[in-house]
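In response to the reviewer comment on reproducibility (Comment 2.3), we provide here a single inverse folding case reported in full, input and output, so that an independent group could reproduce the run without further information from us. The structure tokens appear first.
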């Protein structure tokens, strides 16, 4: 049992909790040379991890399935909007 952090409702016994990401922050990963130590096949030999940029989770909360679905739908709508679809 858990309390949904989005609607504050206490779950029914056996109800599944879903972790929902409510906030992300952009981040950059530096490149790492010789990152693939010990597992070098002929194909991956000499390839360094180039690093890059992405998003990491800043805030996460436990939600009931209803809230999680709502959240995912809202997030998908927001993404579609930002892409101009
Ligand atoms: Zn909820």
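Designed residues, in position order:
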């Amino acid at each position: 049992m858990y309390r949904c952090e989005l609607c504050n409702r206490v779950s029914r016994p056996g109800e599944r909790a879903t972790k929902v990401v409510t906030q992300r922050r952009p981040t950059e990963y530096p490149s790492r040379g010789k990152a693939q130590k010990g597992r070098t096949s002929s194909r991956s030999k000499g390839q360094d991890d180039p690093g890059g940029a992405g998003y990491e989770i800043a805030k996460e909360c436990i939600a009931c399935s209803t809230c999680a679905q709502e959240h995912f739908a809202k997030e998908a709508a927001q993404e579609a909007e930002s892409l101009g679809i």
